[in-house]
Amino acid sequence: MNQPGIVLVLALLGTATHAPILSAHAGPPFPIVLNESAGTYHVSVWTDPDATDDGTAGGQFWVMVRLLDGSPVPGETRARVTIRPLDRAGAEHSGLTEPVKDVATRQFVALLMDHEGRYAVETEVFGPRGAAVLHAEVDATYDLRPAPVLLLVYALPFVAIGFFWLKLMRQRRGPAIRGGAAVRAHRGDDERRRGYTR
Asked: Looking at the DSSP assignment, which residues form a beta bridge with residue 132?
């Protein structure tokens, strides 16, 4: 296969390799509870519900808490998030949140969502100012964003394209450079001959 053919094949491979990324789910977190009043609290729950099949806790939950009276949220305030599959029989998974950067108004926990499907989400907020429970549902999906090492693999076809393109351009320029040198040498010989005949 000639050089242009190799470049074309590599370009097609690169396009095919990158196609799944364009259609993959890679959305940002979104709210499943938004500024809901419960007990003495205003509560919002945001989630990035990524299902995994390797035991990784990919379901991420952020719990935002404010007090109805506007006073500071006590540092001891916590939330417990519990998820349960609704589309099939399955075990509950529960976890206690931890403040993000030691700020009690924003807390985080990651839970295992071991399959795609719909889950019930229960968020219990508790602390010195009392307790409250909120309910929601969410659909878990597999996160198809590639791992960092795969990004290098995906980039290889494009690196190869650049390499072969530069090599092809260098091969095409080679004869032209050699031809130009020959013309200059010939002109030099002519000038020398004319100098001898004067």
From this structure: 125
In sequence order, the 6+-apart residues with CB closer than 8 A to the CB of 21 are 144, 145, 146, 154
SS3 helix, strand, coil % of the chain, rounded to 5? 35, 40, 25
- DSSP type of residue 32: E
| 83-138: pLDDT as tens digits | 999 999 989 999 999 999 999 999 999 999 999 999 999 999 999 999 999 999 99
Distance (Å, whole) CA 31 – CA 47? 6
Q: Which of 128, 122, 99, 103 is nearest to 41 (CA)?
A: 128
The mean pLDDT value for 37-54 works out to: 96
Strand 130-142 to strand 41-51: parallel, antiparallel, or no bridges (unpaired)?
parallel
Which tokens hold the place of 188? 């030099």
In order of 45, 50, 77, the CA distances from 39 in angstroms are: 16, 30, 13
Q: Which CATH class is domain 25-142?
A: mainly beta
CA distance readout (Å), 41 to 36, 129, 133, 154, 165: 8, 9, 10, 47, 62
The helix (H) or strand (E) run that includes residue 23 is: none
